Amino acid sequence: MKKLATLAVTLLLFSCNTGKKVVSNESAPEFKVLTVSEYKGKEKKMYEVIQNEAQLKALYAAVEDPEVPTIDFKKSRIVALFLGEKNSGGYGIAVDKVTEKDNVVWVTVKETKPAAGEMSTMAITRPFTIVKIHTTKPIEFK
């Protein structure tokens, strides 16, 4: 009888579902880095979202790159990240991650700089990164 009671209590405990379901409306659109350089970026720090061929050609002309990629703007957008002018090398800017939440694509930007005492190029640099994101939804930065 004692075994039967223990079995009944055990079954009762296992049948209770106390776990919470976590529902997330966050996803991660695919992205691809197209161009990265420490030179030929813009003088001021800025982020740009490119939505058509004319803007893309203007962007690649501004960074003096003659090889403009072919982009299907019905499916993708281009993000250009400019760190601005720096007085030495060792600086960089990149996409850390891309997420989608509440119908908005969020691009998390990561900036790098030389560590204290680290040797770096003594030249004026203007780091930038150009990334293709597989989305047509609004893009915001953080």
Number of strands: 8
N-to-C series of helices and strands: HEEEHEEEEE
Mean pLDDT, to the nearest integer, reads 87
Q: Give the DSSP E fraction (strand runs of 2 or more residues).
A: 25-35%
Please give the radius of gyration in angstroms: 24 Å
Topology diagram in text:
Layout: H1 2-15, E1 26-27, E2 31-37, E3 46-50, H2 53-62, E4 77-82, E5 92-101, E6 104-112, E7 128-133, E8 139-141
Parallel strand pairs: 6-8
Antiparallel strand pairs: 1-5, 2-7, 3-4, 4-7, 5-6
Structural description of this entry:
It is built from 2 helices and 8 strands; from the N terminus they run αβββαβββββ. It has about 140 residues and is of the alpha+beta class. It has one domain (about 25-140). InterPro entries: PrcB_C_dom. This is PrcB C-terminal domain-containing protein. It comes from Flavobacterium kingsejongi.
Summarize the structure in short.
This protein is an alpha+beta fold. The chain has one domain (24-141). It has helices at residues 2-15, 53-62; strands spanning 26-27, 31-37, 46-50, 77-82, 92-101, 104-112, 128-133, 139-141.
List keywords for this structure.
four-stranded mixed beta sheet; 142 residues; single chain; PrcB_C_dom; PrcB C-terminal domain-containing protein; 17% helix; alpha+beta
